[in-house]
Amino acid sequence: MQRTVIHVFLAAVFLGVSACATLQGISTQIDGWEGIGQQPLTEREIAAGLKEALEVGISKGVEQLMKENGYYGNPSIRILLPPEAQEVESVIVRHVPQGQALIDKVVLKMNRAAEEAAKQAKPIFVDAIKQMTIVDARNILFGKADAATQYLRAKTYDRLFEAYYPQIREAMEKVGAQQAWQALAQPYNQLAASPLGSTVGASKTVPEDVSRYVTERALYGLFVKVAEEELKIREQATARITPLLQKVFGELDKR
Asked: Is 83 inside a domain boundary?
């Protein structure tokens, strides 16, 4: 009788341990959102979280920039005259017919071109994000406040420029920015090339095609907006709009 009781007890213990092991095995195989916040942060979640964060940041940033005054209404990223023209702006105002009006028109239309081209930016960025590795993601998550944005810039800027430049040129033609710039640049360059040029301080000519310059400034503004959104996700819990973002970036709150 005593031996039977011992056997029953051992069987119960064995079954209990087996059941626990089975349940534990099942819980580690769950691949859904139900376990988020309860399971330890995995390498896969870090990578997915970083990619999701960048997509969220890019979506918000691009949506803001593609609106009217997305660039023009934001002093921190508003596209101004190229440096060559800024140096001689006072000469243009004084000696080019309707110089100030032409400058104002050029500045407005350059920004309108950037706002128009911003509509094409998101798919280019998203495609680049897909190339991020797990190692990259971990380094970025625990890196500087703009680590993800800087990574994206370093890895994709040249490709983005090549893809973005034609969009800027097309947009500049569409909104009349290139025509407005030429209306300003041509008379100024004629003045600079004349004997009178040096006497009025117009010794430098300005480029007649500013599409490359506008592209550079448009991409600068784009990265500024992405960095702003990245910082929000890192520092503000309310900006983490999905369970995955909450779990991944919640790790930063513990540090």
From this structure: yes
